[in-house]
Design goal:
alpha+beta, four-stranded antiparallel sheet, three-stranded antiparallel sheet, 43% helix, elongated, binds zinc ion, transmembrane
């Protein structure tokens, strides 16, 4: 009897072992299921916070760039190191943004602005940053590069260059030089600087859509470009960040724009410094010949050297 009892116990033990193994496995599957669900929720939170941050970096960078340009328009002063200034200013706004985010969630969020520098494409400023987001044992780290557009920003260069002679006048979209540009050129020892009295130029940066530039040889295209105040790509002209430092030329891919002079009568010697902003405001100056133009129905003109004539297809 005792022996039989042992045998039964042995058999039930044999049956119980797989049942126990099965239960343990099932329990593990349930708890793994919970882990996966938990991880998904946490990583979703991290994912959405990271997306939100990545959306806001270029917006905050644009805000800083815009305010920096506007500041120059008011005080005419150049920045000594504009990438550094914009990087620091952006970092402090990003810190405010991330700490607000942290208050509303249980995430830890860090965003370090590593660098701000001229884009390979001069219509953009490049912002590089490192994001770090964590929640308990989950974390996400990513390096992000943003191209921030400079279109619609105020061109700070004319304000820095002419500001010492007085405050530049401007309308919604044009700078009216009055006597300030001719005074600036006279001070530089330029011949015929008086032709630049009442000159005008665009206030805001807009990209010229007429590419390749050689089609500016067509009068309608050229008039449309000038009436719209478009800027052009230039290997010589300064990029936006260098313009904030008061530089007319720089080593980065940059921009140039036409400066219009009032219509001149033919009896005068029709030659003066070339009406391209980086020529006007740099030390490397050269003359151009007069071209009459229509600007918003009025007669205007500009002086253009042979290199710029061939760039824009103007005979
Ligand atoms: Zn154009
Ligand atoms: Zn530059």
């Amino acid at each position: 009897m005792d022996q039989k009892g042992y045998i039964i116990s042995g058999l039930s033990l044999l049956l119980m072992v797989p049942a126990m193994v099965l239960s343990i496995c099932l329990l593990n599957i349930f708890s793994m299921g919970n882990d996966i669900k938990e991880q998904t929720i946490q990583s979703d939170k991290i994912y959405y916070a990271s997306q939100d941050l990545q959306r806001n970096i270029p917006l905050l960078a644009l805000e800083v760039l815009n305010e920096t340009g506007e500041e120059v328009k008011i005080n005419n002063l150049p920045y000594s190191n504009s990438p550094r200034y914009i990087k620091d200013e952006l970092q402090s706004r990003i810190n405010k943004f991330t700490s607000n985010h942290e208050l509303q969630s249980d995430l830890e969020i860090k965003c370090t602005i590593n660098s701000v520098h001229p884009g390979k494409d001069p219509w953009y400023v490049e912002v590089n940053s490192t994001l770090f987001l964590s929640q308990k044992e989950f974390y996400h780290e990513e390096k992000v590069s943003n191209q921030v557009p400079i279109t619609q920003l105020v061109d700070p260069l004319p304000f820095i260059k002419c500001g010492v002679y007085g405050d530049l006048k401007y309308t919604e979209n044009r700078i009216l030089y009055d006597t300030l540009l001719s005074e600036y050129l006279q001070n530089q020892g330029e011949a015929n600087s008086s032709y630049y009295t009442n000159a005008s130029a665009p206030l805001l940066i807009h990209k010229c859509p007429y590419e390749s530039y050689i089609i500016h040889g067509d009068e309608n295209t050229r008039n449309s470009c000038i009436n719209n105040g478009f800027y052009h790509y230039s290997a010589d002209g300064a990029c936006y960040l260098c313009r904030l430092e008061g530089k007319a030329v720089c080593i980065h891919p940059g921009l140039e724009v036409f400066i219009l002079v009032p219509s001149l009568n033919d009896s005068l010697p029709l030659s003066a410094i070339s009406s391209i902003d980086h020529v006007i405001f740099s030390d490397d100056i050269y003359p151009g010949e007069y071209i009459p133009l229509k600007f918003l129905g009025f007669d205007y003109g500009l002086f253009l050297d042979s290199a710029h004539r061939s760039k824009y297809g103007i005979p």
